[in-house]
Amino acid sequence: METVYITRREHFNAAHKLWREDWSDEKNEAVFGKCSNKNWHGHNFELFVTVKGAPSPETGFVINLKDLSVIIKNLVIEQLDHKNLNLDVPFLEGKLASTENLIIEIWKIIEAPIGEAGGQLCKIRLVETENNFVEYFGRKEPY
């Protein structure tokens, strides 16, 4: 059986700051730099969700991309778009609003629904800036 990887791209805009209350202003600035701005800062995030599986003999799809889009939009984008990641997102409560922590939480939210739709979540890429992105493969190594 052939394995195919298919990726859906979505985007959202959100603000955050990287800040630890238990650190001094000086330490926060030394570690997080401009990202510790007390007045927050924003990003135009791009989210790439990669699903793998064998194409269905009936449809030729690994997963229906309409279904994948609905999962991502309803469970992730609606929760994050035009929000303050530090203040408005319940699944980040108590966590530093780093891109690394965000991608792990997104995985936890969409893995089961994607499985129920017939695919297997393989990788998520979250692009924060044109120069910075993170990738997450779940709790397994990618290679």
Helix content: 25-40%
Taking all Cα atoms into account, the compactness measure Rg is 17 Å
Structural class: alpha+beta
* Secondary structure tally: strands: 5
What strand line-up does the widest sheet have?
3-1-2-4-5
How would you describe what is shown here?
By secondary structure, this protein is of the alpha+beta class. Helix content is 29%, strand content 28%. It has a five-stranded mixed sheet.
Write the layout of secondary structure elements.
Blueprint: E1 4-16, H1 25-32, E2 41-53, H2 65-80, E3 83-84, H3 99-116, E4 120-127, E5 133-136
Parallel strand pairs: 1-3
Antiparallel strand pairs: 1-2, 2-4, 4-5
Helix pairs in contact: 2-3
List keywords for this structure.
alpha+beta, 5 strands, about 30% helix, about 30% strand, about 140 residues, elongated, 3 helices
Summarize the structure.
The protein has 143 residues and is an alpha+beta fold. It has helices at residues 25-32, 65-80, 99-116, and strands at 4-16, 41-53, 83-84, 120-127, 133-136.
